[in-house]
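Please check the following.

. . .
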Amino acid sequence: MRLAMLIMTLVSVALLFLLTQASANTDFFARHYFWLVGLNVALGLAMAAVIGVQLYRLWRDHREQIFGARLKFRLMLMLALMALVPGALIYAVSVQFVTRSIESWFDVKVEGALDAGLNLGRATLDTLANDLAQKTRAASAQIQDAPDASVSLTLERIREQVGADDVILWSTNGQAVASVGESRFKITPDRPSGTQLRQARQQGWASFIEGLEDADEQGTGKARIRVLVQVAPGGLGLMLEPRVLQVIKLIPPTLVSNALAVETAYREYQERALGREGLRTMYIGTLTLSLFLAVFGAVLLAALLGNQLGRPLLMLARGVSDVAAGDLSPKPTLQGSDELDGLTRSFALMTQQLSDARAALDKTMLQVH
């Protein structure tokens, strides 16, 4: 029983440790949590079976009126209550703490602040895009009558006016007429998609925010604002076709990093909010399982201590009964170091002395006769 209890204790501690690690690690939880719960439940059932065997033996001893059965039952009950009462108190406090902590993670004010921050970031980017689009539309009139030979100078002037990083004038067939800025030295300039061109032709202009998904936490990357403005041809020539003015401006890295941080926090908050009930159930289940294993272990310990305490008392009771019946034969002893084991040795010595005294008395009586 000692070996079984030691093995169960070590295994239960190891499984509970792994269970808490699974609760804190989402990936580990997803892979192994239910296996760990199953192993803990199996261990708890094994402990319950051992306790059931001990209780059956105790009931059998009580029915047969074996000395020490009531004492062992009282010892088991007291030790079990000593573990159950503080364990239940700690369990109740822990459940309340976990429940309120989880609820505090999903406070309405926190959700509102994250939602407001996300909307503020989007509104800031939309404002930058709209402002750049308005400036580009106003400046596009400068190239309506500009000849192709001097259009580059006009584009450079527009780039300085709107504070852009790249300006390209596209023809109807998708060829770059002229470009200034970063695309000047590129063989294949950054061309807009067909959908973007169609939207610009239908509305006369269009703005797009691109590259946010490719930026890192520091905001480095190609996050930019692309503005397309359809430029009507100047003059009255029927052969002239409208062109598209493209303006690209990089978004400041600080703004990108802040917007990504808010978006990431909002996404993680929503993911955790969806799993709030599962998270609460997981933690409360872990606490409940820990309480059951602790109570089962305490009952097993109580049974073990009850046997250790009841064994010397049972030996003393049988010895006293034998002495009262006149049986002074050598009595069994326990070689432990505690007081009850020493009491069995003292009783055995006393019985031996009584036996020796009786033998001496019987010898004396024979000599007298």
